[in-house]
Amino acid sequence: MARILLGIVLCCLSVGLSADLSTNIASGMDSDSNSDSDTGPQCSRPIWQDEFSGRAVDTRKWQFDLGDGCHRGLCGWGNDEQQWYQPDNARVENGALHITGRRERSNGRWYTSAKLTTKGRFSARYGRFEARMKLPSGRGFWPAFWMMPQGNITWPLAGEIDILEHSGHTPETILGAIHFGREWPDNAHYSESLLAPVPWTEDFHVYAVEWLPEEIRWFVNDKEYGSVTAAEILPYPWVFDERPFYLNLNLALGGTLGGKIRNADLPGELVVDYVRVYRLNCDEDTATATKSHGSHNRNA
Ligand SMILES: [Ca+2]
After folding, report:
1. What's the structural domain count of the chain?
2. 174 pLDDT exceeds 60?
3. Which of 160, 192, 210, 269 is catalytic?
4. Is the pLDDT of residue 151 over 50?
5. Residue range of the domain that includes 198
6. Domain presence at residue 6
7. Exposure string for 124-162, b = 16+ CB within 10 A, e = fewer
8. If residue 228 lies in a helix (H) or strand (E), which one and from where to where?
9. Beta-carbon neighbour count of residue 288 at 10 Å?
10. Is 160 a catalytic residue?
């Protein structure tokens, strides 16, 4: 989600979240305590999921991030994003979460949208993190499915994992990335992209990462389109083995990746059929387990 120039972006999203760890442990939702050792059939079942089969956003699983970031000293969420986040722009209907980005005056902004996070609700270290989604079509939309580290650590010292990002100006391209390094402006990132002959917005696809010790792999519909290892980002330290990360889902408008907003293209929706998290270490070791992801219960 964070771009280079505005690397301060997400720093403040993690500030003030020191309560997360205790919340997760207390609720039993944090999978990190046993995710390294369990084996067996639970690997074919999600350890956490939301199928969005109810009538509203399940606030036991998600929190809303609100506003435009200015209350955190991070106007436009550090990326010059144009939307005001509010719960009204997220609804659960027909088995899916719908996040709507629209032209609507609110609190001094010209656009509204929504952002959901499992911050304080669920986090995990390692595993397969996937969402089946249909991306909005239209110039200015910037949907993202991404992860941030638990704890109160200045961005990006503890990392950031972007499972999927997309710009409505380049509808045939999807992006995956990690952010790391030192504090802005000495931060760094590694990214992968996949260019398709037709827009990704035309259909549902399953976007995923498989996160292992010293390695992260990006997938779409079970096709691996990129990976990064600790060795590949040297001399930067690999900070992704240290703590659990929580999930974020949002639809930004404009900003450094969303670009110029074309009002005639609005409104638009990010539709999420489900979000599922699996362990990967089903077999003898993590390295072989990741090859067996076909056993997961996915219906992409
Ligand atoms: Ca569903």
Report:
1. 1
2. yes
3. 160
4. yes
5. 11-295
6. no
7. bbbbbbbbbbbbbebbbbbbbbbbbbbeebebbbbbbbb
8. strand 223-229
9. 12
10. yes
Q: Phi then psi for 123, rounded to 5 degrees?
A: -150, 160
For this structure, is 202 an active site residue? no
For the chain, what percent of residues have pLDDT higher than 90? 78
**Cα of 210 to ligand 1 centre, how many Å?**
21
User: Rounded mean pLDDT of 176-192?
Assistant: 97
CA of 274 to the centre of ligand 1 (A): 5
Is 272 part of a structural domain of the chain? yes
Q: How far is the CA of 98 from the centre of ligand 1 (A)?
A: 11
Q: Which is the catalytic residue, given 81, 104, 130, 165?
A: 165
On whether residue 5 sits in a domain, the answer given is no
pLDDT surpassing 90 at residue 182: yes
CA 207–ligand 1 middle distance (angstroms): 15
CA dist., res. 237 & res. 162, Å (int)? 18
- Distance (angstroms) between ligand 1 centre and the Cα of 200 equals 19
The answer to whether residue 28 scores a pLDDT higher than 80 is: no
CATH code assigned at 126: 2.60.120.200
Q: Does residue 245 lie in a domain region?
A: yes
